[in-house]
């Protein structure tokens, strides 16, 4: 049953007996909660995860030998994260302020991190490039709107 409860990439972090002990302990601590309390408690935990609220995209990157050929790209309110597809380790998170350019098409998504002259380009093969483009455009638009609002408030 542990295979159904513990993600494969975390299962080796502890022994089977240790996982069982921890699960039973948490179950006993939380067994008196109402469904609403359990939902709130769950959200308080996952809200702290760096990928909370992310949209995930599987891509094949063709430019940076420092990263695996296949990557997961997570886009959320923190920026754009590159994630190892097997270990699920976050390799890098680029805040929106570091993304200077991006484009997409039916089979690709391109992004420049840093400035256009000395920046790093990430070229990805994906059929969801247009969705990545739209999401990135929306987050950056929201960020710029919020920055302009703060400037206006400071000027008043």
Share in helix: 25-40%
Largest sheet: 7 strands, antiparallel
The CATH homology group name of the largest domain: Pleckstrin-homology domain (PH domain)/Phosphotyrosine-binding domain (PTB)
Strand content: 25-35%
Classified by CATH, the class of the largest domain is: Mainly Beta
> What name does CATH use for the topology of the largest domain?
PH-domain like
The largest sheet has its strands arranged as 4-3-2-1-7-6-5
Number of helices: 4
The CATH architecture designation of the largest domain is Roll
The succession of helices and strands, N to C, reads HHHEEEEEEEH
User: Which term fits the overall shape?
Assistant: globular
Overview of the molecule:
The chain is an alpha+beta fold. The chain folds into two domains: 2-46, no CATH class; 55-155, PH-domain like. Helices cover 37% and strands 27% of the residues. The protein is built from four helices and seven strands, in the order H-H-H-E-E-E-E-E-E-E-H. Strands 4-3-2-1-7-6-5 form a seven-stranded antiparallel beta sheet, with helices on one face. Strand 5 and strand 6 form a beta hairpin. The N and C termini lie far apart (60 Å). The mean pLDDT is 90.
